[in-house]
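agent> Task received from the user: take the single chain below, predict its 3D structure, and emit C-alpha cells. No templates, no multimer pairing.
agent> Plan: (1) validate residues, (2) run structure prediction, (3) serialize to C-alpha cells, (4) report one or two observations.
agent> Step 1 OK, no nonstandard residues flagged.
tool_call: predict_structure(input=
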Amino acid sequence: MFKKQSDIDVALDRITLNAIEEMGSYETVDDGYATAKKSVIELMKLRESNKPKQLSPDALLAAGVNLAGILAILHHERVNVIASKALSFVAKLR
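)
tool_result: status=success, residues=94
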C-alpha cells in the first residue's frame, strides 16, 4: 500500500529542505537568496524527473476497449455456436 522511498528520494528531500532553510536566512534582495532559490528550483526539477511516468489515458482506454471486445466474443461463443468462417478474418497471434 505504501511505497518505501528510495535512498535518492530521501537524499533529495534532505538537500531540498536544507536549501529552503538556507533561503530563510537571507533577505530576498541578497545574492545568497537568489543562489539558494536557483538550487531549490533545480532540485525540484531533478525530483520530478526521478518520478515514474504514469500511463496515458489513451493507453488505458485502448486496453479497456480490447478487453471489452474479448469479453463480448467469449460471451457470444458461450451463448451461440460460431459456425461461420468469419473468425478466419480475425488477426491471429504470431
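agent> Step 4: summary for the user.
The chain has three helices and no strands.
agent> Done.
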